[in-house]
Amino acid sequence: MNIKYLGRNLPYMPVFEQMQAFTLQRTINTEDELWVVEHSPVFTQGKAGRPEHLLQASTIPVIETDRGGQITYHGTGQVVVYVLIDFKRRNISVRELVSRIENAVIATLADYKIPSTADPKRPGVYTENGKKIASLGLRIKNGATYHGVALNVDMDLSPFLQINPCGYAGLQMTQIADFIHPAPEWTKVAEKLTEKLTILLN
To answer: Which end of the chain has the least Cβ crowding within 10 Å, N or C?
Structure first.
């Protein structure tokens, strides 16, 4: 598994285009990769996204993308890991892949003594109070995946109030900073989550 740290506060669109290009160009011998990044503020709308889930317009751009799911928010203080793997080569189902990604987040949060769980009815990871702390969306093309998971670390959560997060009206969001003071560094959380993903996806 090749791990790439792309940087922080990066615009969404160039990274999205790089993921598409990487997936189109990969062969049976291409090494799987995890791309770790923090995006500048952006709303991304899934392929089947419904415009009514954007509740109010703002200066934050809305970009249509080709992952599954509805609308979500990326911004400063959130760890995003894009999972670019050949899942057929690993002989696992899409559901198993999603579960392993969710379990990597759950294991990361457990290291910070934050209990969390997955919900079989909707992707992502949720804390004990029912709030969502990590969002997940994938695109499968030619037996390979791209897009991935976003874990809220220490960010301004107010933009989530401008949307129905992931298409769920009234869904409340949370972050590591709501449980730990001071919040752990972005880099430390990114390293920990990437380590868990590497173990569970290999």
So the answer is: C
Per the model's pLDDT, the better-predicted residue between 89 and 104 turns out to be 104
Domain CATH number, residue 138:
3.30.930.10
pTM for the whole thing? 0.96
170 lies in which domain range?
2-201
How far apart CA 38 and CA 21 sit, in angstroms, is 20
Contacts of 48 (CB under 8 A, 6+ apart): 68, 69, 70
Domain total in the chain: 1
Q: Is 119 a catalytic residue?
A: no
Q: Which helix (H) or strand (E) holds 78?
A: strand 78-84
3-class DSSP assignment, residue 116: strand
Query: By the 8 A CB rule, do 4 and 37 touch?
Result: no
Is the Cβ–Cβ distance between 33 and 4 less than 8 Å?
yes
Among 97, 157, 166, 201, the one annotated catalytic: 166
Closest C-alpha to 105, from 150, 64, 165 = 150
Asked if residues 66 and 3 have their Cβ atoms less than 8 Å apart, the reply is: no
Structure tokens of 168?
């769920």
* Other beta carbons within 10 Å of 86: 18
